[in-house]
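Justification of computing resources. Each target in the renewal requires a structure prediction run like the one illustrated here; the chain below, 142 residues long, is used simply to show the kind of job we budget for.
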Amino acid sequence: MLAAAGLRRGEVLFDLGAGDGRILVEAVRKFGAKAVGIEIDPERIAQIKGKLKSTGTEATLIHADFMAVDLSSADVVAIYLSETVNAKLEPKLARELKTGARVISLDYALPGWVAERELLAKAAGLDRKLYLYRVPSKGVAQ
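Resulting structure tokens:
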């Protein structure tokens, strides 16, 4: 996901619904990015903290609903959410993301946005689809 998004050293990655923290670790270790994970589940927060500690990785972890967190500093936003959640998230992304910011979504498109690229990938033996979006100007996503 991060390679497809073109994540670069020093950029800020937000992982919405950070899950087990693997994207945060990869963003920091392989890409030299600043990673911010947003997770609402306290058990997942504990799991992520353990993964960060065990890998010697530093990332910012926010225990919150990502709908309540300001995303304006993101260069890249990684999401693996449902169609329903993407539809609710879309106006927030359009409103808050800066020009040039990228959104990489696993399996589910963002309604109303036109993907810059759609990629097929294999993960754990499954065919997956990645959607890459770029914000061309403030508040207008395609």
